[in-house]
Write a structure and sequence with these properties.
Helix content: 25-40%
CATH class: Alpha Beta
Bound molecules: zinc ion
Order of helices and strands: EHEHEHEEEHHEHEHHEHEEE
Number of strands: 12
CATH superfamily: Metal-dependent hydrolases
Number of helices: 9
Structural class: alpha/beta
CATH architecture: Alpha-Beta Barrel
Strand content: 15-25%
Shape: globular
Length: 293
């Protein structure tokens, strides 16, 4: 049994550790297919994104490591690309002309906090409150609905391979501080979004990052949303969103158990021939069924 992970940061963006440290930890954690996904460069000055002029070095370094660890683990090169209309997105020409094996599309920014700086929705609680009050007339519902409408727009206009942390908006909603996921308008926003995703080729990641770092008490997305993904036959993959080398497979057995209990029997894996379904249990993926080298 083995694992895969396609959401891995490193010191090319906002995480600690060289990619090689992540690879070594991945090998120790039975990961056989590892995708790197640094935060893609953006044109505004915000902390944590890769600098554009480091892209060639990123591609080169990951290619070297792919060769070095061949036979032990397969390394893929990706980026976590923000969708910000008029600014950047998974289909930006720059990202179509470099070394990428796959793309994660994520929404971390909505609107602008001043003329040039997009507002980040997963910052501190204070920044979150500021955004609700100043950009959405004090209405959390307006913010949440805008967030999911951006995800739908991304899926329709610039579909990535993987949709990053679908319900990231809940990061700043601990203990239902601002809303309950049971509210009809929240459920409607999710259902409308899943309907659009089910018409696309996109994979939803089950992201263990929030849970593993103690920032949320559940997976991204929440279990009831994963249940709806099952009903709609939306394909999933389990990703760590690792920002530390020892977190490359954090909470994977728990996540796999949750999916298995809901009814999933396959996850998507990236091979040299593209994305394929692969059988799994809570002990991991049966890569031998798929992955011939
Ligand atoms: Zn992210
Ligand atoms: Zn990430």
């Amino acid at each position: 049994m083995a694992w895969t992970n396609y959401h891995t940061h490193s010191n090319f963006c906002d995480a600690v550790g060289d990619p090689e440290e992540y690879i070594q930890n991945a090998v120790r954690n039975s990961i056989k297919l590892l995708g790197f996904s640094s935060h893609a460069p953006v044109s505004f000055p915000v902390y944590g994104m890769m600098k554009k002029d480091r892209l060639p070095e990123y591609c080169r370094r990951l290619r070297e490591l792919k060769e070095k660890y061949k036979g032990l683990i397969e390394v893929f090169t990706g980026l976590e690309i923000d969708y910000i209309p008029g600014e950047t997105g998974p289909d930006l020409e720059l990202f179509n002309t470099i070394c990428l094996d796959f793309k994660i599309g994520s929404v971390h920014f909505i609107g602008y906090e001043d003329e040039t700086m997009p507002w980040q929705l997963d910052g501190t609680q204070e920044q979150f409150k500021w955004g609700i009050d100043n950009l959405f007339d004090g209405s959390i519902r307006k913010l949440v609905e805008k967030y999911y409408s951006l995800i739908r727009e991304m899926v329709k206009k610039e579909p990535p391979d993987i949709i990053g942390h679908l319900d990231l908006i809940k990061k700043n909603n601990p203990g239902d501080l601002f809303y309950s996921e049971n509210e009809p308008w929240y459920r409607d926003a999710i259902e409308e979004t899943l309907a659009v995703i089910s018409e696309s080729e996109c994979i939803i990641e089950v992201n263990t990052g929030g849970l593993a770092r103690g920032r949320t008490d559940s997976l991204y997305p929440s279990e009831w949303i994963i249940q709806k993904c099952y009903e709609l036959s939306i394909p999933l993959t389990i990703n760590a969103d690792a920002h530390k080398p020892d977190m490359v497979a954090a909470c994977f057995p728990e996540a796999a158990k949750t999916l298995y209990e809901i009814g999933f029997r396959e996850l998507r894996i990236l091979t040299d021939e593209g994305w394929k379904p692969c059988p799994f249990t809570e002990e991991g993926l049966e890569l031998s069924m798929i992955h011939k080298r």
